[in-house]
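Go through this chain.

——
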Amino acid sequence: MSAKEEQLQEIEALNSIYPDEIIVLSEDPFPKFTLMVKPTTNDEDSLKPFLQLEITFHENYPEQAPQITIIDSANVDDTSAFDSEIQKICEENLGMPVIFTLASDLSEKLSIQSENRQIRQREALERRQREEEEAEHKRFEGTRVTVESFIKWKVKFDAEQNELKKVVKVDETELKKLTGRQLFEKDRSLYDSDIQFISGEGGEVVEVDESLFEDMLDLELDDAGSTGIDLSDVNE
């Protein structure tokens, strides 16, 4: 069997394994095709990484490595690392059909990258959730008191209290200067308290001894405001 016939048999085997991933570009003078390599865990990775290889056989394949080029890729961390891996696998398998072995190895490497990326994404998500939970906890917990924060609060509190005392002192000084009428006008409760006292409201009954005022009925006030009492009568 010629080298080309062996190569065509290998293409046929690859077609049965990768029916949706392989595209034969030509068979003459030697087979040339593209092969898309995907990770074995591709369905679990939303980014769906892949490598697209262009492979060209020659008259000395498989005794010599075929020509392989990465013509396309997506969501792959480092294509140069895959170039090195391709060269390494081909050198290790000289004299044997290498494409299936190579595709399996690259697929496994893509899977490892995909799994590591998913781990990083989960860790980032969990870290963000922890940070949000801690921020929410601190919001409900309030600010933790330290010696420095307490001293700062105490200084501010004392200053506010001193200002409040000044305002109260000013109000007391102004009240002392007010007349009785001004006090009633300023504080209606003073007037209401007198009304309650007279009317006996508030649960207290006010009794007045009328006998205390009987002698006052005999008193006559003159126009000048005197009582008009005859002192001789008093002396008798």
User: Anything to note?
Assistant: Residues 99-141 form the longest helix (43 residues). The radius of gyration is 53 Å.
